[in-house]
Amino acid sequence: MSSVLLSVNNLVKTYGTRKAVDGVSFRVLAGQTVGLLGPNGAGKSTIVGMLCGLLAPDAGDIVLGGERVAPGAAAVKRRIGVVPQDLALYDDLSALENLKLFGALYGLRGKQLAERIETVLGQVNLADRARDKPATYSGGMKRRLNIAAALMHDPQLLILDEPTVGVDPQSRNAIFDTLEALQAQGKALIYTSHYMEEVERLADHIVIIDHGKVLADESPASLHSRLAAQAALRVELAEPAHASLLDGLRAHRGVISLSCDALSADGVALDIGLAQAADALPVMGWLQQAGCRPLHFATARTSLEDIFLALTGRSLRD
C-alpha cells in the first residue's frame, strides 16, 4: 500500500459572499494519479492555487510529506511541480536556455543542472531539439517543454492544469506516455482536464468538484458502479417505434433505461441503457423477433462523461 503524500483537509476559500471552496478534503498517494474534475466555476482553479501555495485558505490545511503548504512555505513548495494551462516559456530562448533558467530558479548549478536538463529532455523526447527555440516548436512540443520545466527540480508531486490544450493526437499520446512513466517512478500527479477520455486513461482515482464541494472521491470502478446502466446500445430503426415496442423493451431483462429520438423520415434512434454489455445481444434478438429493421447499431460502455454529467447536471456553465 502506497503512503499518503498529500493530504487536503477541509479547505475553505471565500471571495466576498461567495464560497468558492467549501470544505474540500482528499488525499493523494505516492505513485498515484488523481483526476481533479469539475464544471467551469466549480472551484478547481482556486483549489489548484492553494495546492501550489499561491493562495492561502481561509480554513483547513494542505500537508505534503508532513509539511504544511502555504504561500510562505518555500521549502515544501520546492517539492511541487506545476504545469500551468498557459505556457510558461520564453520563446526567444532555446529549450536548453529555458531549462537552465528554470533550474537556476530552484538553485541548481553546474553538473547537477546539466544532468537534470539531460534527464528531463529525455523524459519529454526533446533532446534532439534542445538548441532550438520554442518559437519554432509545434504546440505539442511546447506543451512537452512546459512539462520538462516543471520537472527540473525533481518534484514529488506534479500538478497539471489542462496540459494537452491545442495539441495533436500524436503529441497528446507522447504526453500520456511521459506521465505514465513518471507515475511508474513513484511521482504523484494531480491532473485537471475537460477531456474526460484523458482522465479515464491516466487516473487511478478521481475527485469531482462542483459548487466548491466534493461530489465524488473514489476509484473509476467505484464511480462506474454509481450508474445503474453499465453499458449502452444505440439502435437506429427505419420505422417508427410504437408504444407497445417501447413498453416491451423497457420490460426486457437487462434494460435499465430507454430514450427515443427521431431520425430523418420515419426512422428513430433508440438509446438503451443496459445492466451489462452481455445484455446487448438478447435485446437485439428481441427487436428482430418484433419485426424491427435496424439500419445501424452500436454498443458502448458507460463513460466517465456519463458519470460526470449525472453528478453535476447537464446545464450549460459559463
Automatic annotation (TrEMBL):
GO terms for molecular function: ATP binding. The keyword Nucleotide-binding applies. Keywords: ATP-binding, Cell membrane, Membrane, Nucleotide-binding. SUPFAM superfamilies: P-loop containing nucleoside triphosphate hydrolases. The keyword Chaperone does not apply. Residues 6-236 form the ABC transporter domain. It comes from the Bacteria. This is ABC transporter ATP-binding protein. The lineage of its organism: Bacteria, Pseudomonadati, Pseudomonadota, Betaproteobacteria, Burkholderiales.
